[in-house]
Amino acid sequence: MRKTRVLLAAALIAATLTTSLVAGSRNDAAEAAVGPVVWSDEFNGAAGPIDSSKWKFDIGGSGWGNNEQQYYTNSTNNVRVNGAGQLEITARRENPAGYQCHYGTCQYTSGRILTADKFSQTYGRFEARIKIPKTQGIWPAFWMLGGNNWPTTGEIDIMENVGKEPNTVYGTVHGPGYSGGSSIGGNRTIGTPLGNDFHNYAVEWSPNLIVWFLDGSEFFRVTPASLGGRQWVFDHNHFMILNVAVGGYWPGYPDGSTVLPQSMLVDWVRVSSWTDGGTTPPPAGGSALRSNFSNRCIDIPGANPVDGARLQMYDCNGTAAQSWSFNGDGTLRSMGKCMDPAGGALTNGTPIQLVTCNGNPVQRFTLSGAGDLVNISADKCVDINAWNSANGAQLVLWDCTGGANQKWVRA
After folding, report:
1. Could you tell me the residue ranges of all domains in the chain?
2. Would you place residue 285 in the very low, low, confident or very high pLDDT band (cuts 50, 70, 90)?
3. 380: CB partners within 8 A, 6+ apart
């Protein structure tokens, strides 16, 4: 399989500046909105080969669309379980078998493993605890592909790092019209090299929303509104990949400062199901949306609501006025009408109301794996105004902060 990812730094930085959104750390309420772990590899056991029931190898020295310099092998010299509860993927300056690369005789070997044909999933939390390598020209990654027809089938990069920027993690999506140098991504830079210690790298992926985390703290999110009218291709199964590349257009190439071998250590990889414990979107049938802050439910006032009825919080009572269904067109419906930002406004403080469904994209909402009820067009969250915990509290749009007054569960 080939993957073309010509990530030009300037283009990626530009995309970051226009689409990045930084929020606070995840809390216990956010954790509770993610379903159970449905797939994992803890890399325990004796030193030796990886588990072939979970992983397979990509092999070769084609450059992989990025002018990479390594030859990927299936040797335990490059990929192994180390006997200390970790996966090791090691890049070496060697050519033990006369490997040929796209540029001639290969100078380096490394490893690239994937779950294609073994495991894939639509939506959920995908997370790994990793200690990355660090040296000029090295390029570790933890990422996902949606199929063989890149970029049409999509790519979600959970973690990438380039050795020349040891303190920075990148998260990116690629799709038709936004691949390579025009990809859409964000990053976070910390005070010490990421390779000094293990860190947790994760995405939470739900319909129309992908959120990136470093050590439990969100650093980037993307929705269809981030794509500028280009096609969203992230509503089907993706499989995972772990690899360490050497050289390439984005990281540059080994030089006199490069120290090899370098290993990426992976403590574990875990995949949780999407919200409500399922690996598919919520059922069409309605359910209440209960606040983790007030323990009350989103409610429609009045038995026969009219267009413009202002949504409120009220004691959960199981009535039709508190039954909400997520529809295939992205709308969130109750009593035959749609949740809607008043006047189509997408600014902080816009009231949330109920109106006749009209096909306007501003009526699309999604419940993320972290429990955020996100308006897709605004990339903002449904928020209990002024942290009011009483019956009758009003709902508004607001920047997603991770606060408990923006956290919801289906009840």
Report:
1. 9-277, 289-410
2. low
3. 346, 348, 374, 397, 398, 399, 400
Q: Is the peptide bond preceding residue 133 cis, with omega within 30 degrees of 0?
A: no
The one catalytic residue among 68, 88, 127, 160: 160
Q: Which of 124, 121, 153, 142 is nearest to 237 (CA)?
A: 121
For the entire predicted model, the pTM comes to 0.69
Summarize pLDDT for 114-127 with one digit per residue, the tens.
999 999 999 899 99
Active site residue 88: no
Among 68, 88, 155, 218, the one annotated catalytic: 155
Q: 9-277 has which CATH code? A: 2.60.120.200
Task: Tell me whether residue 68 is one of the annotated catalytic residues.
Answer: no
Residue with tokens 């040929």: 100
User: What CATH number does the domain located at 289-410 have?
Assistant: 2.80.10.50
